[in-house]
Amino acid sequence: MSGQIPILKVKGLTKKYGEKIVLNGIDLEVEKGKVIAILGPSGCGKSTFLRCLNGLEEVQGGDILLDNESLINKSTKWREVRQRIGMVFQSYDLFPNLTVMENILLSPLKVQKRNRSEVEAQALELLERVGLADRANDYPRQLSGGQKQRIAIVRALCINPEIMLFDEVTASLDPEMVREVLDVIAQLAEQGMTMLIVTHEMNFAKLVADEVIFMDKGNIHEQAPAEQFFTNPQTERAQQFLNILQF
Amino acid sequence: MTFDWQYIVDVLPHYKTALWLTLKLATIGIAFAIIVGMICSIIQYFKVKVLSQIVQVYLEVARNTPLLIQLFFLYYGLPKIGITLSGELCGIIGLTFLGGSYMAEAFRAGMEAVTKSQIETGKAIGLSNLQLMRYVIIPQAFSYSVPGFGANCIFLLKETSVFSGIAILELTNTTKNLMGIFYKTNEALLMLVVGYLIILLPLTLFLTWLERRVRHAEFGN
Fold first, then answer.
1. Could you tell me which of A96, A97, A117 has the C-alpha nearest to residue A105?
2. Where in this chain does the record put each ABC transmembrane type-1 domain (chain B) (predicted)?
3. How far is A94 from chain B (nearest CA, A)?
4. Is A101 part of any domain?
5. Residue A209 is part of which domain span?
6. Which residues of chain B does A140 touch, with a Cβ-Cβ cutoff of 8 Å?
7. CA distance B153 to B142
C-alpha cells in the first residue's frame, strides 16, 4: 500500500505573523499511504502547518509540492487543491442550516458537479462505515459532538481526497466520543489513506502513525518512526515532552 | 364621555382606504429597504473598495437624520431643482432610504456572527466565494439577523405615520383630517390605534414564528 514516491513534499516552509516566526523552514516528505502524526506543545505551529497545506494560511517562504507541482504561486487554484487535500477541524463545523446528507453532498454536487445518485450512494456507504447511516436526515444540532465529528470526516471523504489533514479533531470531545472518532481514523489508516494528523492522543499516534513529527517553536525537532519516537526519543525536547505526559 | 359609534361606521371607508395605502406603501418601502440593505451589507462585509466608503456615508446620513426631514427634502426640496415626484413615491423612496440603512446594519451583524471556522470549513471543502455566500453565510446570517430584521419591519411600518407630513392620506393623516373636520377626536384616535394594530399584530406574530423557524444557526454546529 505504501509507495516510495512522495505525494507531498514540503521544503523550507516559512510562516510569519508580522515579525513573529510561526513556522521556521519546515521540511517534510509524505509518501502515499503513510500516516504521519504531528505532535508538540500548544502554539508550536502544528495547526498552522496543516492550514498552510491547503491554503488557509499565506506562507512567506519555502514551497509545497503536491505530486511534484508547486502550490506556492499565484496561479494555484486552491479550490482544486482542496478537493485533493481534505481537512477536518477541531470544531467539526457542520453547516447548521443543512441536514447531515446535505452537508455531505454540498461539495460533491456543487463543486465537483458529480451525479447525485452516485454521490448519495457513496455518502450512504461512508455513513454506514462510521455507523451513522440512520442520521442522514438529521440536523447537526440533533447530534452529539462525536457524531458530528464523524459526519465531518465523511463530508471530507466524500470529495475523494488523496490526502487527509486532521487538526486536533478530538480535542473538544469527551473520552467516549474520542474513541469513536479515532476508530474511524484508524480504519482509514488501514485502508491506506495518506494522512497528517495533529493530535494530543499519544497512544493513538503510537498505534496508527507510521511516522511521528515532533514540533516546537516552529521547528521540527524530531522526525522518527512512531515506535522509535515513543520508546527512544532522540532529542532532549521530545524526551521532556513525553516525560510530562507520563504520570 | 359619549362615544359616537354611528360616526365610526360612517368614516369606516376612509379608514379602510387609509389602511390599505399604509400597508401598500410600507410593504413596497420595506421590500426595497431589504434589497438596499442586502446590497449594502454585502459591500460592507467584503469591504469592497470605494463602495464601502460610499455605503458608510449613506448609512450615517440615513440613520442620523429624521425621516420627516428626508421626506421634506424629497417632496419640497427636489422640485426646486426641477424634480417633482408624487407624494406616494416620495414616501416609498424615503422609507427605502431610511430602512435600507437599518436593514444593512441588521444583515451585516448577522453575517459577522457567522464564525470564521464555518467559513474556513466551507473553503476547505472547495466552495467558491459565491457558493460560500449562498450555502453557508447567507442562510446563517439570515437566521442571526431575524430579530433585528423583525424589529426594523415593525419600526418602518410605524414610521409611515410620518408620511402625514407630506400630505399622503395614510392612517395618521386621515385621522388628523377627520379630527379637523368633525372634532370627533376620541373616535378618530380609537380608529387610528385599531388600524395600526390590525396591521402590526399579525406582522408581529409572523415575525415571532419566523424567528423560531430559522433558529438553526443558534444551536451549535
1. A117
2. 19-209
3. 5
4. yes
5. 6-245
6. 219-221
7. 14
Contact A56 B123 (CB under 8 A): yes
- Number of helices and strands (H, E) in chain B? 9, 0
CATH number belonging to domain B17-218: 1.10.3720.10
Q: Do B221 and A54 touch (CB under 8 A)?
A: no
Tens digits of residue pLDDT in B175-193: 999 999 999 999 999 999 9
Inside any domain, residue A1? no
Mean pLDDT by 10 residues, chain A (247 residues): 76 93 94 94 91 94 92 90 95 93 96 96 95 94 93 96 95 89 94 94 92 93 92 90 80
pLDDT, one tens digit per residue, over B5-24 is: 999 999 999 999 999 999 99
Rounded CA-CA distance A177/A153 in Å is 14
Whether residue A131 lies inside any domain: the answer is: yes
A180 CB-near residues (< 8 Å, 6+ apart): A131, A146, A150
Beta carbons of B124 and A82 less than 8 Å apart: yes
ipTM of the modeled complex: 0.89
Instruction: Tell me whether A111 touches chain B (CB under 8 Å).
Output: yes
**Interface contact A97, partner B, CB < 8 A:** yes
CATH number at residue A216: 3.40.50.300
Query: Does A89 contact B128 at a Cβ distance shorter than 8 Å?
Result: no
**What are the residue boundaries of the structural domains of chain B, listed by start?**
17-218
